[in-house]
Structures are given as structure tokens and as C-alpha cells.
Write a structure and sequence with these properties.
The chain has 221 residues and is α+β, with helices and mostly antiparallel strands. The protein has 2 domains: 108 residues, no CATH class; 73 residues, 2-Layer Sandwich (Potassium Channel Kv1.1, Chain A), CATH 3.30.710. Helices cover 26% and strands 30% of the residues. The protein is built from 7 helices and 10 strands. It has a 4-stranded antiparallel beta sheet, with no helix packed on it. A 3-stranded antiparallel beta sheet has the order 1-7-5. It is globular and about 50 Å long.
Length: 221
């Protein structure tokens, strides 16, 4: 009985790898003691959204010779790189023409996170041992029930790939279409990429993400 209990507890632990990419364009735009703010969503766990700041500092002080300091807010008190609480690290790219790609390992007990870190819609899609007993327990629509005609029209346009102007290439080789205006509205990182690009459509190679994860992220937007 003890062994069975321990196995059940172990199954609740989640370890997710995330590659945080900060483009050189954003780094070059920072002046000393200025910062920018952005966020990232943990792949597969749309309910876990982390806000982070990147601040440009002088090359002396607490962080040694680092030119930038990354601060990740941790409202869920998960483990980031083996430590709970907010995460701080000094960053120094080899040169400002290089992007920063920071691998992060995030560990958490799914039972301690609301809905296990998944959105309500995700949880319903993945299935539950309980059947809905009332109208309130039914899975939500992809388009919220209170959506206006304008919102429904926007969703229709976003899912029409006839004039797609950006493509993601997933790690499993699938080509996934999307639209620059929508991506740029939700992410300054994408906006910076699009500003640098001269070819249309733009191709983004997403080596760290399978097609299912990319589809999920685009549907969330």
C-alpha cells in the first residue's frame, strides 16, 4: 500500500523544459537602467503564464560582468532551475547581434496548481473521470459564449489560412500557417522578428515544439 501511494504521488510531479528566447533587437533597443516586460506560457500548460523583465545594467555590481538581468515573476511558487520564488539571473550575450536562448527547467506538483496548470478548456478536452452533471460543467467553446459578432469575425479570419503570411515549422516537420498581425498583437518578440524580416511569407523554425503544441498556442491566441 505504501509503494502504491508513493507511485501515485510521483505521477503528480511535472518537469517541463522551456527555451526562453530574447532577440538581439530587443537587447539593442535597451538603454542603461531601462527594461522591457514580456511573458511566456509554459508549453502544454496554458494556465501557467510567467511575466519577466529584462533590465540593462552597468557591468559592475551584484551580477559581475553581466550586461543584462533577467527577472521572472513566480506567482505559482514552482521550481525554476531547482529554486522556488522569483528567478533572477545575469545575462551577457557574446555580442549584441546574438539572441539569448536560455534553457529553463520548471518543476511543480500539479495538485498544488489550479487545474494542474491547464486552462478549463484544456482540462475538458483532455478528459475527466467525472461526467458533467449540469449546464455549468459542460466544456467551454473555443469562442467564449459572450463573444460579439466582431470577435467571431476575428476568429473566422484568423483560422482562414488563404492569406497566411507566416509559417511555423514544428520539430516534427509540420508546416503551420498563421498571421503576423495576430502574433505581433500578443508578443513583442514576434513583432521584432517581423520587423527584421524582408520576405513574405515569413518562416519560423520551432525546433523545440511539436505541431500539437504550436496549434494549441495559436488557438489560445
Amino acid at each position: 500500500m505504501v509503494e502504491k501511494k508513493e507511485m501515485n504521488e510521483m505521477k503528480q510531479m511535472c518537469a517541463v523544459k522551456y527555451q526562453l528566447r530574447i532577440t538581439s533587437v530587443r537587447l539593442q533597443s535597451l538603454k542603461c537602467n531601462h527594461s522591457f516586460k514580456d511573458e511566456f506560457v509554459l508549453p502544454g500548460y496554458d494556465g501557467l503564464i510567467f511575466t519577466y523583465n529584462v533590465n540593462k545594467i552597468e557591468t559592475t555590481g551584484q551580477y559581475g560582468k553581466s550586461d543584462f538581468v533577467l527577472h521572472i515573476q513566480n506567482p505559482y511558487d514552482v521550481e525554476i532551475q531547482g529554486k522556488k520564488g522569483d528567478f533572477n539571473i545575469g545575462l551577457r550575450p557574446l555580442c549584441l547581434a546574438n539572441d539569448i536562448n536560455l534553457p529553463l527547467l520548471i518543476n511543480f506538483n500539479a495538485e498544488e496548481i489550479p487545474n494542474g496548470g491547464k486552462t478549463k478548456h484544456q482540462s475538458n478536452v483532455l478528459g475527466s473521470s467525472q461526467q458533467p452533471s449540469s449546464e455549468e460543467n459542460r466544456p467551454e467553446s473555443v469562442i467564449p459564449s459572450h463573444s460579439s459578432k466582431a470577435t467571431k469575425l476575428l476568429h473566422k479570419l484568423a483560422t482562414n489560412h488563404r492569406y497566411a503570411d507566416v509559417y511555423f515549422i514544428s520539430s516534427d516537420g509540420e508546416k503551420i500557417p498563421s498571421h503576423r498581425n495576430i502574433l505581433a498583437a500578443f508578443s513583442n518578440i514576434f513583432a521584432a522578428i517581423f520587423d527584421e524580416s524582408t520576405e513574405i511569407p515569413i518562416q519560423i523554425t520551432a525546433n523545440n515544439f511539436v505541431a500539437e503544441t504550436i496549434h494549441s498556442a495559436l488557438n489560445f491566441l
